[in-house]
Structures are given as C-alpha cells and as structure tokens.
Amino acid sequence: MDLFFEFFSLQDPNIRYVLAGTILLGISAGALGCFAILRRRALVGDAVAHAILPGVCLAFIVAGGKDPFMLIIGAFIFGLLSMVTMDFITRNSRIAPDAAIGMVLSVFFGLGVVLLTFIQSTGYIDQSGLDDFLFGQAAAMVGTDVRVFGGLSLLILVLLIMAYKELKLVSFDIPFARSIGYPVKRMEFLLALLMVMTITAGIQAVGVVLMAAMLIIPAAAARYWTDSLRVMLVIAAGVGAFSGITGSFMSFTAPAMPTGPWMVVSAALMFLISFLLAPGRGEIARHVQRKKLSFKIACENILKTIYSLEEADGRTDRVRTCGELAKKRHIPERKLQKVLTSLLKKGLIAWYRGNPDGYVLTVTGRDEAQRLVRVHRLWEQYLNQQLHIAEDHVHEDAESMEHLITSDIEDQLRRSLGSPALDPHKSKIPYKDDGGKGGRPGSKLPDGDNRINNDPEEYPLKPGKSDKDHKKREGRS
Amino acid sequence: MTNVNPPHTGKQNPPIEVHDLTVAYEQKPVLWDIDFELPESKMTAIVGPNGAGKSTLIKAAMGLIPSSAGYTLIYGKPLDKQRRNVAYVPQRESVDWNFPISVMDVVLMGRYPHLRLFQRPSRKDREIATESLKQVGMEEYAKRQISQLSGGQQQRVFLARALAQDAAIYLLDEPFAGVDAATETVIFNKLQELRTLNKTVVVVHHDLQSVPDNFDWVMLLNLRMVAFGPVDTTFTDENLQKTYGGRLNILSQMVERSRQQRFIRETES
Ligand SMILES: Nc1ncnc2c1ncn2[C@@H]1O[C@H](COP(=O)(O)OP(=O)(O)OP(=O)(O)O)[C@@H](O)[C@H]1O
Ligand SMILES: [Mg+2]
What we know:
The structure holds 2 protein chains of 2 kinds.
Chain A: H1 2-8, H2 13-38, H3 42-51, H4 53-63, H5 68-92, H6 97-122, H7 132-135, H8 143-162, H9 164-172, H10 174-179, H11 184-202, H12 211-223, H13 229-253, H14 260-277, H15 283-313, H16 322-329, H17 333-345, E1 349-354, E2 358-361, H18 363-386, H19 395-401, H20 407-417, E3 461-463, H21 467-476
Antiparallel strand pairs in A: 1-2, 1-3
Helix pairs in contact in A: 2-8, 2-11, 2-12, 2-13, 3-5, 3-6, 3-12, 4-5, 4-6, 5-6, 5-11, 8-11, 12-13, 12-14, 13-14, 15-17, 15-18, 18-19, 18-20
Chain B: E1 16-25, E2 28-37, E3 43-47, H1 54-61, E4 69-74, E5 77-78, H2 79-82, E6 86-89, H3 103-108, H4 123-135, H5 151-165, E7 169-173, H6 181-196, E8 200-204, H7 211-214, E9 217-222, E10 224-230, H8 231-234, H9 237-244, H10 250-261
Parallel strand pairs in B: 3-8, 3-9, 6-7, 7-8
Antiparallel strand pairs in B: 1-2, 1-4, 4-5, 9-10
Helix pairs in contact in B: 4-5
C-alpha cells in the first residue's frame, strides 16, 4: 500500500517520466489499433512487431550499446522492410496473405534471436537492457528514452487527429475513395507508417513480442461500447492509457518483472469487462435480452393457447386450468406459474376460483391473443400465397414470426393480401373490426366488461381474492 | 440540388468517352476492346448476364482497377482532372456495413471531393448532406449506425452520398439489387429528376422488363459490347439473344474453359 501511495503521489520525477511515456504510448496504440482492426490488419501489426527485433539488435551493434535514436532508426527500417516483404509476397506469388504474414513474422523474429545470441556471446558490446526489448521494461526508461519514445507517441496522435477524415474514408470504402481521386495509396502508406511508428514507440515499455496486443486489445474492447468511430478511438485510447498506468506501476513495484505482460493482462481485463458488461453488445446484456424475449414468447403462447381453447369449444366463460394449459403447451409447471403471474399482473387474464380453479382471458387479453392468431394466420397465408410455400410447411415459421411482426408489418401484410378471410388451413383469420362476429367465438361480452358470463350450474365461479391466494391454490393443483 | 450545368468545353465533348478499353484479371481478359461515347443528359442502362463484366467496365472506366489498354475522357479531359464531376455508387456489398459509422458520416463523404485534404466538413456541407438524405427519404436515419439499416436503406444512403457530391455524371452499380418496390420507385424518381437537371446517369441494371420504361439508352454487354444505342432501336430481341444466349457465345465458352484450366482466386475483388 505504501508503494501504491509513493507511486501515485508522483514525487519521484523518474516515476512521472515513465508514467507519461507509458500513458502516451497506450493512448496512441489504442487509437491507431482501431484503424488496424477495422481494416483487418491486426495480424500485420503482430508480424511487424516481431520483425523489428533484428533492427533493435543491429542498433545495439552499431551504437555499441543502447541508444534511443539508433533504436528508432533500426526498428523503423525493419518494420517497413517487413511490410514491404509481406506485400511483395502476396502480390507476386500465389501464397495467401495469412501465410505471408506468418512467414515474415517467424523469419524476421528468428533472425532477431540469432543476432541477440550473437551479441550476448561477443561481450564486446554493452548489452545491458537488450533483453528488455523482448518483453518490455518501462522502468528502464531514462529521461532521453521517455522524450524520444513519448515524442513519437505524441507525433502519432497528432497525425491521427489531423488525418482523421482521410483515415476513416480509406478504412471504410476504398473504391469510393479512389473514385473521387483521393490519394488512397498514400493514405494506406501513412497508416502503415503510423503502425510502424506505434510499434517502435512501444518496444521499450511493452517489448516486441507483445506489442501487437496493445494495438488489438484496447480497440477490440472499445468496439463493444459504441457504434461511433470517434468514441471508439477515445475509449480505446483510455483502455490503452489504463494499461500504461498499470504497466508502469508494476514495473516500479517489481523491477525484476517485465512490463509488457502486465500491460497486456490489464488491457485484457478491460476487454473481459467490456465483453461481459457492455450494454447491448456485452454477453450479460445479450443473455438478459434473450431471456426477456423467450419469456415474452412464452407469455404470448399461453394467451394464444387459451384463445384456441375458446375457439375450439366456443366458450369464453369457461375457466382453463393450469394442468390443461401445461398439457397443451408442453411447458414446465414452474415456468407456467411465472408466465401466468405476469399475465395476471398485466391484466391480460383473470383468475377464478371454483371447481375447478382456472383462468379466463380478459377483454384486453382476448384482443392481444386475437392479434397473435391473426398475424400468425396472415403470415401463413403470405408464405403460402406469395412465396408459394406448401400449406403444410408454413406453420412452424409462423410460430416464430408471430412474436416479431409489428403492427406496421401487419398492415403491410393485410394490404398486400387484401385482408383474406381464411388462412391456408381454412381457419378463419380474426379481425378486430368485424364486430366480434367473425373469429371471436362465443364472444358475447360487451367491450370493457371483463366479468365472467358463467353458467353457475356448470361452473360455479368466484373471483379469486388475491394474488397470494392464487399462488397457494395453484401450488396444490 | 443546384442546377449546375456540366462544365462543357464545347458541345462536342461527351460526358464520358471510353476508348479501346481492355481489362484482364490474372492475364485472362474479361472485357474486350470496349469503345463508346455516352450521350449527354440521358439515362443509360448497362445490361448483361452475371459475369458479363458490367461492374468491371464501370470500375475500369473509373480507373479503380488497372486495365491492360484503353483510357477514359470526361468532357474531353483526362479522368483524373474531372473526378469531382463523376459520382460513383459501388455495389452495396463492397463495404463492411458493420463499420462503426453513422448514416450522416457516410453521406458526408460525398462532400470530401469538395474539401481539401485534412479539411473538416463545414456546416454548409452538413446541410447539403441532410438535404441529400431528405431527397431519398432517409432524413430520420441520419444518426443511425449503418448496420441497423435494411438493404434498401443502405442503397438509399449510397445514393444520398452520390447526391451530396453534386456531380454531373452518376455511375451506379446495381442500385436496385435487393430493394423493395417502394425503394425502387424512390430511386427511379430521383434518377429521373437528375436527368431533368441535365445530369448524365448510367445504371448497371438486371431487370430487363423495366428498361424500356425508364431508360433512354442501353448498352448490352457480354465480355464485349454487343450493342449500344437508344433503347427503341437497340433493345431488340435479336440483340438480347446475342447478349444472353450464352451457349452460342464462343467468347464466353473460351473464358469458361480457361477458367477451368487454371487456378483462379475468385474471392478477391
Ligand atoms: N478480382 C477478380 N479476379 C479475378 N476475376 C474476376 C475478379 N473480379 C471479377 N472477375 C471475373 O470477371 C468477370 C466479370 O465480372 P464482373 O463482376 O464485372 O461481372 P458483372 O457483369 O458485374 O456480374 P454481376 O451481374 O454478377 O454483378 C467474371 O467472370 C468474374 O468472375
Ligand atoms: Mg456486378
């Protein structure tokens, strides 16, 4: 805990430096990564990051030790070289892009490891800090390093903001961009250049092996939260910055440990949170939506079941028992209870005690059930008439479509079919406006009256007292 | 849209001239020696069977894909000097409709040719974009993300982007693919309106029945140009037979054979 306060009090100028560097890096990598994943270039980023290693080693050899400017030049040359090689291979051979990317990644990285071992074996060169470039070591950054690498990140950010409109266009619609004479080739080159720059800026803090993750993960997490590119860039930058802070903190508390893995793990944590919790697209939100939809469907199906029982015996004044409904619908008792409770609450059905206990549709409930039956049969008729699907194949589809058909679509169906009287199975299609004569079997109730017009001899009914009562009784049946 | 007269350099220069255009994918020609001049302020349909090279013709004429021979002139000037005057509406499948971008942003791209590099769209540009959306009946969707649109709505957004470009020539690649009757009417009306504003409109089209009623000129294409001229004289059964009577067409047989013999990547386009 002391360490925590010591770190975040920012007393130590060194900490301030390192923190500024990693935050800047996180921001620029996160933002640029959005373009990389939207243009499906994430793997290219990984290959470039690995391919930079020989450049780093050569910079050590030439400078005789660690020198930030040399490092940038070396990394840059090898980053671009690897891009050109990938491009050349895909253009001039029948090798598919993914294979070309894999080849460049492993060959360049292999070369880098060879150079690394060579440097370690000679002993002539000051090799301290060389290992850090594999997995990153933020704390190893001294003043000049931060200025150089941080400056590079800042430059990337400025370029990204300046060319935002152009980069958006090229990422979205290249044919259109070409058609209006935009310099697409140059824009693509700029993006490639920015990617190499970002990766170069990250070799000290994150290292070549994991740098690609800092491009990909924040952007992938950000995509869960928004549908706007601008917002996505900001969120990705934020996730990147957060990883940057975590990275420097870990590097400060545990200097022996490399920083890169910590940064990647904290970015991944943010991704996991987005994946689970993001509204709308996150897994939990989607699960809740699915549950809601499936419950709504179950409710509507029960309404329809009661309605079809009414249709069958022509009696609206007769209660339908829980067991009757469960048998008809093949629905587990417990779920049925929940559904019935919800329907009762919405006033779509009413519960009556008597012998036996059971449910009847209220007037609004009957209207709703009728609507469902109507769109179901309209849909069947539509499939049969206009899409020429045999009448014995239309029911299943209508079973699911009836829950999705809006009143707008219903109107369209009616217009295009001319409000047919019968469905393909010769069942009557119930319309609201046919005065209760057509599809409303035995509907003798005046509108607005949801009392039961029962026959006391046959079904001696009394309205149930309360919800609790209803539950108690149902529990027994 | 304002009634801008096309930038004539004398009446004799047609909106588009294409000269000896030949296009090959991986050494196999798919368009042979196409040569034509589009008439001014007319609506032209390009028709032909699948794989006839209709999209290829438009793309190559716009310089979007390399051609092995031939060149395009716009009002007598090289294409690259005139791009702002040509609005191209790609096939709908050419972009990723899950891209995080709003309808408004897509339509605003139509203003880019009027902006300098790195210059942001102004309020005026936004007004023009809103107006274009209105013209295709999509103004309520301005803030929507494009993945929430139906196929017909996507097509309208693409048309609105072209309208926002305020060009003299409109090239549309299958704007009616997968749209319902209502959208079809909206698009046709809009195109007809463009013609009355003296714009030149070219449409790659699949529905042969609607050609005589809606178009002035027609180009029949099947790897070569079978016929090109006013609908009345060109859109004849004989010409259609020549275009669509696949089996008799030696050229397409040869293309088919060469395709079978060599490995070809169809997916890249
Ligand atoms: N990128 C490509 N690489 C190789 N061959 C291609 C490529 N694009 C198109 N082709 C081939 O060129 C021919 C013409 O294609 P094009 O897309 O121009 O046809 P089209 O007339 O637009 O067809 P459709 O009506 O299906 O849109 C086809 O045979 C197609 O297989
Ligand atoms: Mg096509």
